[in-house]
Amino acid sequence: MSLKVSNIIRKLIFTGSLFWAVSAQAQQDSLFLSVEQLFESGIKSSLQLQSDSLKERMAYERKLYAKTGLLPDLEIGLKGGIIGQPVVFQNGLSNPTYPDTPDWSQNYTVDFNQPLYQGGKIRRSIQKADIETEIARLQRMTNQADIKLGLLNQYLTLFTLFKQHLVLTRNIEESERRLQDIRQMKKEGLITNNDVLRSEMQLTNDRLSLQETENSIHIVSQQLNLLLGNDRNPIITPDTTLLQQATPLDSYDDYLLSAYELAPDMQLLRKETELAQNQIEIDRASRRPNINLYASNTLARPITRTMTDLYNNNWNIGLSVSYPLSSLFKNGHKIKESQLQVAVQKKEEELKKQQLQMDIYNAILRHKEALQEEEAWELSVCQAQENYRIMQNRYMNQLAILTDLLDANSVLLNAELQLTSSRTRIIYTYYQLQKACGRL
């Protein structure tokens, strides 16, 4: 039988045995979750992502508000009040007279103002709001990838604990059978009571370890339930087929190219650079003239020049042009600051590219390392199983002491646990690599 076929058989046996351990835990209130369901529930329940979604909606509303700058301003006014008694002096401040005037005044106005040219300020403000909306979306995507990886870490920890529970349960059963044999050998006078006591102590330690593992399963499940929004707090059982998931590797250059194009944090930095460049144009727009089309209509009573108690209506329409001369010497420093901000953002992009190169290289190397560890621990488990079988036979034939047998059992237990850890590490490093290149 080839090594590859042998590895497949071992994995199938492991999957079936782990499913048995999961079924044992499922006697309590349990919830089966695949990785896809884990991600879906985690994203839906994440308070961080809910906050990010609200910020994204806020940015979208700012974008809609910025577009209203293209619309005209329309204002309606109404004034009404009492007219005081005017005093007219005929000679300096002497000989006052009190002419007859109306008691009430009324004024109705409609003002219209349409911006025609603002130096590009309105258009650039709309672009700024549009970029900020995209930045909010990319920030949510970045946090979403972090949350997925964090959930997966908890999920794989739970997976490892279930396997540990299985191994310890099987080890306790083996210890109980061994203790029965040792007690029988003690009755036959082949060994001393010391071996019985040591075996009982070892069995007690294994049972304590099993209890600790069960408690850890409850703790990790409770943590995941909080993140997933499960109020009834069931024991979460992981998908046992996860370890059979294919984890193909692409080349380093392919991963790096994907990261430059798809990674949300890389896209986020590019958008922030674009935002800084847009701010330069907004600052420059303040140095350009403003042109507006205006129109107004006023209906007033009385006629203010003669105080005749009659309605007077007048309207006007025209263009207004203004040029902010003070901006020529005030906004120079502001423009320079915005230009420096663009330079800072470009340096941030270069720094992020360097970080991506290191992250992807490390992730590829760690993933290959995990694959090699799995092969090594598979061989170690086979060797430990054979070593334990030999030591057990030797002990039963009084050719080895109990310490050697317990050491062989401890080596086998550790090898099985390390094999599970290496397999879960393969999955984690694979998803870690997917996150680094923007595919998670």
From TrEMBL:
GO terms for molecular function: efflux transmembrane transporter activity; porin activity. One of its GO terms (cellular component) is efflux pump complex. Pfam families: OEP (PF02321). InterPro entries: OMP_efflux (IPR003423), TolC-like (IPR051906). Residues 337-364 form a coiled coil. Residues 1-26 form the signal peptide. Keywords: Cell outer membrane, Coiled coil, Membrane, Signal, Transmembrane, Transmembrane beta strand, Transport. Its main location: membrane. It comes from the Bacteria. This is TolC family protein. It is found in: Cell outer membrane. Belongs to the outer membrane factor (OMF) (TC 1.B.17) family.
